[in-house]
Structures are given as C-alpha cells and as structure tokens.
UniProtKB/TrEMBL annotation:
GO molecular function: 2 iron, 2 sulfur cluster binding; 4 iron, 4 sulfur cluster binding; formate dehydrogenase (NAD+) activity; metal ion binding; molybdopterin cofactor binding; NADH dehydrogenase activity
Keywords: 2Fe-2S, 4Fe-4S, Iron, Iron-sulfur, Metal-binding, Oxidoreductase, Repeat
Lineage of the species this protein comes from: Bacteria, Pseudomonadati, Pseudomonadota, Alphaproteobacteria, Rhodobacterales
Keyword Metal-binding set for record: yes
Gene Ontology terms: cellular component: membrane; oxidoreductase complex
Residues of the whole record sequence present: 238 to 936 of 958
Similarity field: In the C-terminal section; belongs to the prokaryotic molybdopterin-containing oxidoreductase family. Belongs to the complex I 75 kDa subunit family.
TM segment ranges: none
Ranges of residues in domain 4Fe-4S Mo/W bis-MGD-type: 13-69
Name of the protein in its database record: Formate dehydrogenase, alpha subunit
GO biological process, one term: respiratory electron transport chain
Length: 699
C-alpha cells in the first residue's frame, strides 16, 4: 500500500494509502508525495467506506499539517501566568512526570487523570487509557466521545448488548425506508450522504425528524415523505409516539419479537407504550408535530419494507439522549428491522475515531472492548499482561474531574488531542476547573484555548505523520499510514510512551503494530485484527476473531449480542432548560460541510474562505418582530452568557427556534450553552438552550 507512482503533473513520486482524519465516514485516500511534499489527496477507489469518493475536507483540507501555527517544540512553565519556555523532550518529560507524581504523593492516586480524543488513533487511545490504569493506577480516563456519542454507547449497549452501529454503509443500498433523526448527513457525513441520496433517487422513502429543514428534506433531487419538525428537546416524546402507533395499530413484527426478544417483557412494554399520553395527538402541542404526520411516519417505518434509522448528535446531545437512543432501538426491535441488509440502527459518528476511542477503553468504567472494570476475570487478564493490580472502581468523567478540581481533590490532567475549553459545555466552569489544577499537560498540534491553562505543552503529530488505525461509524478498522516524518519529532504514541516511562513505566513498543497486537490479545472483538490482515484485505469491521476472521459487516443476525433484545420503557421528561419571557427562543446547533468542529484544522486551510463565520439562522417572523434584517448583527444571550453573530433570515428554522454552527472561536457557542446533561452519561445538552436575541452594533 505504499507504491511508486507518477503523480498528476507527471513527476515521479510515491503514494501512500491512508484514512481521512475528519468525520466518521472514514474515507480512504492515496496521499501523493513529491519528495517530502504532499502534492494531493486522491480518494482511493478501493476504500470500502468511500469507493473513490470524498468530500472537500478530506480532499483539500490538509494544509493545517504545515501551518505556521503548529507548535513543534515542547514547552513548560511553572505557573500559567508565566511565559512559555521551549525545552528538550527530556526536560519536558521530567517536568511533567515530576509534577504528576508529586501531586499523587500529596493528594492520593485519584488526584490525576487523562483525556483522550476521537481525533487520535486506536493505538494512541489505548496507550492513554493504559497510562492512567497501569501507571497512575486509577480509572480517571475519559474521551471527547463523552460530549457526543456516549448515549449511543449506553443505549445500544443496554438494548442490543453492544455499543456500536449495526450495519455497514453498503446496507443503505437495500433500504426501502430511511429515517434520519437529528443528523444532517449532507454537511456532517457527506460521502455517506451521497450514497443515501442515490438510494432515495432510486425510490426509497425518507422520514426526517429534525427541528430544522435540513437539505435532505427538500434538497436537489430528494424530498422527504415526512419531515417531523419537532421542537428541540422533544425527541423522546416523538419516538415514543411512533412506537405507540406501531403497538396500538399492531404493526409490530410478532414473529421477530417472539424469537429474538422476550415476549413477556414485550407485553409489559406494549402496555406502557399504549398509554393514551403517548399517543401522537397527546404530544402534538408539546412537540409541534402534527399527529397525522407522526402516524403516517410510523406506518411507513413499520410497513414500508426494509427500514433503517440513521441518527446523529441531535439525538444524543440532550438531557434524555440515552433515552432517545433506547427508543430508537425499541423501534428497530418492534418492527424486526435488525439483523439483515437494509435495516438497522446506525449512529453517524461525528469524528473520525469516535467509535474507536470508545472501543479502546477510554471511558472510566470500561476496559477495552466495553468490559466493566468491576469484572474480575477481565481485570485479571489485563493485570497479567500489564503486571499491575488494577483499580476496580470506575473513575471520573470529564465534568466530575472539573468538579473535583474545584473542591481541591483533583490536581493533574494529561489532555491529548482535545480542546475542552472550546468543545465542552459551560466554558466558565471548565476554565475554573483547569485553573485550579497544579499540572495541566496539553498534547496537541496548536496552542489551543485549553493550553491557556496548561503548564506543559507536548507538540502533537498529524494523521499524515504516524502509523495506526481509525475505526469508522460502521465499525470498520482502517489503517492510517505515515506519509511524512513527524514535524515535531515524534508520533503521538511515542510521546505517550515517553511520558509513561518518565512516570515510572517500562514500555518498549517500537511500532504501533505491537500495540494493536496487544489490543487483539486482550480484546475478544479485536482478536483477529493485525496490521498484516489490514494490509491484505484493506480494512475489517469488528468483531473480527476466530468466528469471523474477516470481520462482521452486519451485527445481530442470529441473535443479539446480549442474548434477547431488551425493550426498555421510554418516558419523556422535559429538560430543565425552559423558555420564558426573558429567553423565549430555543437555540440548537450543527455543522457545515466545509468546516469541522471548532475549526482547529479547517480554519487553517484554504477552504476557510467558503465559510468564514458562524451565523445565526432566524425565522423571518422572529426577526421582523425584533427589527432584525438579513445580515444584521444580533446579540444572542442565554442564562449562561452571550455572543454576537450575523443574522441569516430563513424558514429552514421554525418560529421560536434559532440555529448556529460552532466552528469559529469568536462565536463562543459554549459560552451560551447550559451545563445540563444526559441523565445516564453526562453528555452535554448542547442542542437545547433558551435564548433571547436583539439587534446589535456588532462585536
Ligand atoms: Fe473525510 Fe468524512 Fe469527507 Fe470522507 S466524508 S473525506 S471521512 S470528512
């Protein structure tokens, strides 16, 4: 997969097959090189996730790797008020390790922790969680998946028994009915969106459940059969009402439920769901969705043939995010839409390695492979391999670490590849927590906002500069191959190893393939994965082991991973974030195609000119009553904070709802959002914030 080639302009060069580091589609590319220069990224026709297609980000937005803002030398400082001082890697390691060890000696072993990122490879994530478990001897590890898809892990784990999507992307080609909930694939997952639209053009029917009229609803060549434009925060009410229609109109698949689920449990669930307060008519005023539309959508989903659900952060980033995921799983089980091509429950993962970062044990309760730290047998296998005794109590999540910092019991954090000050909710709380720590180590490409509170900066490497694997939204493990030497001197896995060894470990990995071999030896779902296999077959979807040596495109074919599928009652509970006279509108957020998350990479490439600022979408009626015209500056304020944005008047949003993206630091979207979070996982409720808007003279 490295080859000599003639690059486009006829100059001899070489090309390396690797994987896009942006979204969870996981497109494969040939990086074409002339000497040490990356000439272009060519979508790889043999890439199983993209089959030669790509979007603008993967194709063009790699300029950040060579951007002048990159920090290439380690830096330290005694206090965050001091200037940074460039030092050698040795000195940086000694300083960082000395501080973390001193903190643990004074405040106990639970006083430090780590954060890893869905931007990192599986191997890097594995090492970071190993660092906290086997070196710091606690389970204080978390990942930025906390703030996006942690409810997916919980909800699908509870109902099906495994925390992952059920299908491969190819499955959409056999779908008759597509339900898209809280996702905007055109902007968020463009290459998959193209395949989805192709299927729609072939005649598949589409149901969109989203507060905003996204492109799929009435875009070029596609039109949704039903758009349920619900009020933000009412997902559970709508999904439960769909289940109500399926149960009360007896549209469920009795044979499937009797063989694949527990019939007695189903009957209890059916009694619950049939209650009159779950009927579409009973929730019409609450959700803003006409009951007739909900009934029609439920009938189409249940009786329209192969039906597949695709969902995104508009499902998970709510105070009832986990409940909605459970409700979605209930719908698939009710209708038998699981375990064959064209159906299933498919979380569209935002970042390139959300799936992998969760698989690798970066949550504080799970060892790699979603096995609880309380499981004695599992813990024993890791203890034997790592030569340590492991903590059997779940560790702290990100928000708990920050709370503990404020009460003085948590003092040290190693944060790899995540800018929590920009990406996590309630910016003031994050800043206060970081400021209260004695040692914050940021390991990243750029001096990000979190680094303002750091004492140590380890320069990071880009995906072009390292070996490893990413796991995409369909559980596909793709190889990341080194295209050029790390500009900072070391790949991220090497930096983590140096840090672990400075803290007292004796790790001796010389290549990430050895880390993957260790993952495979300790994780049954990865038992058959190796770099040799990935080089031979291109990619595999886990589970990949002796039973399925070439991976598993479809899950739950003969039975659920947990045995019987588990119906769980889903009762709507209103969020604590309320509108009122002072804050009468609801703000929800999303992404745009040409930018990516907080924009650290895309803002440092040429494509920034295509979307130079975040704007606030306002319904013309809401704008008119406030005297706001197209392009005006508006002040957007919530109970948490305020910011200023330009107005875009559009009926894509309903009256009472406003919408923005969050790609530019000046927007400070998370100054606006609340600190409410999902009841099961603490995933922040980014998608519902009560706000007021008023005319402004600008920032
Ligand atoms: Fe990269 Fe996603 Fe675009 Fe594919 S669709 S090129 S993975 S950003």
């Amino acid at each position: 997969l490295q080859e000599n080639s003639v690059i486009a302009i006829g100059t001899p060069g070489r090309s390396v097959v690797t994987t896009c580091a942006y979204c969870g589609v996981g497109c494969s590319f040939k990086a074409e090189m002339r000497g040490d220069e990356l000439v272009r990224m060519v979508p790889w026709k043999d890439g199983k996730a993209n089959r030669g297609h790509s979007c603008v980000k993967g194709r063009f937005a790699y300029g950040y790797a060579a951007h002048k803002d990159r920090i290439l030398k380690p830096m330290i400082r005694e206090a965050i008020s001091d200037p940074w001082r460039e030092v050698s890697w040795d000195e940086a390691m000694r300083f960082a390790a000395g501080r973390m060890r001193a903190i643990q000696a004074q405040h106990g072993r639970q006083s430090v922790g780590v954060l890893t990122s869905s931007r990192c490879t599986n191997e890097e994530t594995y090492l970071v969680q190993k660092l906290t478990r086997a070196v710091f001897m606690n389970n204080n590890t978390d990942t930025c998946a906390r703030v996006c898809h942690s409810p997916t892990g919980y909800g699908l784990g509870q109902t099906f028994g495994t925390s992952a999507g059920t299908q491969d992307f190819d499955s959409v080609e056999q779908t008759d009915v597509v339900m898209v909930i809280g996702a905007n694939p055109t902007d968020g997952h463009p290459v998959f969106a193209s395949r989805l639209k192709k299927r729609l053009r072939q005649g598949a029917k589409l149901i969109v459940i989203d507060p905003r009229r996204i492109d799929l609803v009435d875009g070029p060549h596609v039109k949704a059969a039903h758009h349920l434009a619900l009020r933000p925060g009412t997902n559970v009410a709508v999904v439960t009402a769909i289940a109500h229609v399926i149960v009360t109109e007896k549209l469920y698949d009795e044979a499937f439920i009797k063989t694949r689920c527990d019939w007695d449990e189903f009957q209890d669930y059916a009694d619950f769901i049939a209650a009159p307060h779950h009927a579409p008519e009973a929730i019409e005023a609450l959700t803003g969705v006409p009951a007739t539309e909900i009934r029609a959508a439920a009938r189409l989903y249940a009786a329209g043939g192969n039906a597949a659900i695709y969902y995104g952060l508009g499902v998970t980033e709510h105070s009832q995010g986990s409940t909605t995921v459970i409700g979605i799983a209930n719908l698939a089980m009710l209708t038998g839409n699981i375990g064959r091509p064209g159906v299933g429950v498919n979380p569209l993962r935002g970042q390139n390695n959300v799936q992998g970062s969760c698989d690798m044990g970066s949550f504080p309760q799970d060892l790699p492979g979603y096995r609880h730290v309380k499981n004695d047998a599992v813990r024993a296998s890791f203890e034997a391999a790592w030569g340590v005794t492991l903590d059997n109590e779940p560790g702290l999540r990100i928000p708990n670490m920050l709370d503990a910092a404020l009460d003085g019991s948590f003092k040290g954090l190693y944060c790899q590849g995540e800018d929590i000050l920009q990406s996590d909710p309630d910016t003031r709380h994050v800043a206060a927590g970081l400021a209260a720590m004695d040692c914050v180590i940021v390991h990243d490409l750029f001096l990000n906002e979190t680094a303002n509170y750091a004492h140590v900066f380890f320069p990071g490497s880009t995906f072009l500069e390292k070996e490893g694997t990413f796991t995409n939204a369909e559980r596909r493990i793709n190889r990341v191959r080194k295209v050029m030497a790390p500009r900072n001197g070391f790949a991220d896995w090497e930096v983590t190893q140096m840090f672990a060894n400075a803290c007292g470990a004796n790790w001796t990995y010389t290549h990430p393939s050895q880390i993957m071999d260790e993952i495979a030896a300790l994780t049954p779902t990865f038992a058959g994965v190796s770099y040799d296999l990935l080089d031979q077959v291109g990619s595999v979807q886990w589970p990949c082991n002796a039973k399925t040596p070439l991976g598993t495109p479809l899950m739950h074919i003969d039975g659920f991973v947990r045995g019987k599928g588990h119906f769980i009652n889903t009762e709507y509970v209103a969020t604590d974030e309320k509108t009122g006279p002072r804050f009468p509108l609801l703000l929800t957020t999303g992404r745009i195609l040409s930018q990516y998350n907080v924009g650290a990479q895309t803002r440092r490439t040429e494509n920034v000119v295509w979307h130079a600022e975040d704007v606030l979408e306002i319904h013309p009626h809401d704008a008119e009553v406030r005297g706001i015209k197209q392009g005006d500056w508006v002040r957007l304020a919530s109970r948490s904070g305020e910011t200023t944005l330009r107005a875009t008047l559009t009926d894509r949003v309903s009256p009472g709802v406003v919408y923005t993206t969050f790609h530019h630091p000046d927007t400070q979207a998370n100054v606006i959002t609340t600190d409410y979070s999902d009841w099961a996982t603490n995933c922040p409720e980014y998608k519902v914030t009560a706000v007021q808007i008023s005319a402004s003279n600008g920032p």
